[in-house]
Design brief:
13 strands, alpha/beta, four-stranded antiparallel β-sheet, 227 residues
Amino acid sequence: MSPIRLLLVEDDEAIAAGLEYSLEQEGFSVTRQARVDDALSVLHSESFDLALLDLSLPDGSGYDICHYIKKERDMPVVFLTARDDEGNVVMGLDMGADDYIVKPFRLRELISRLRTVLRRARRDSPENGLHRYGDVCVDTHQGKVFKGGRDVFLTALEYRLLLILIQHEGQVLTRSQLLERIWDISGDFVNDNTLTVYIKRLREKIEDDPREPVIVQTVRGQGYRIG
């Protein structure tokens, strides 16, 4: 079994070193950072199963990292902080954090809660037909799309276009490749101008800001990708 890839962002050297050692003894593969900028940089280049974030950091807040993860990645986030007032707890959970652990903590409890968060996240996995992009969830088993928990109505071709992108998640598909696959699936004639319209309509339905899409992304000069 491959190790669980965990991003630990904690600026207290003693706490971070102790956590790194203990988590690695439990089978985690830990990448440790102490600053927001460094954490965002490593998130751009590496993939992780889980993030454990301190709230108060030298150049910002764990909220900044959580916001990026929930917007760009499909991975659980757990906050680790000395602040235990209700306002901070609610704010973190409202941002999409999966759990919130207050210092000081017992190591066994921390590890147990991390594993619980991972199990819950894996139940909402592509193997179960669920694909999450921020607050958008695509249930390919039921053929449904939800945004913020509410049904999103897509036409047959809009859904087929979304499904093709999901089936090639992380890959750039050219316009020609998308046209070929839509033709193969539907048997309907779709030309280049029509594809532009379908991309636009799909973004209007699932993106927070269709003019600045983060789910269905344009890769300049190449095509489109999701994720």
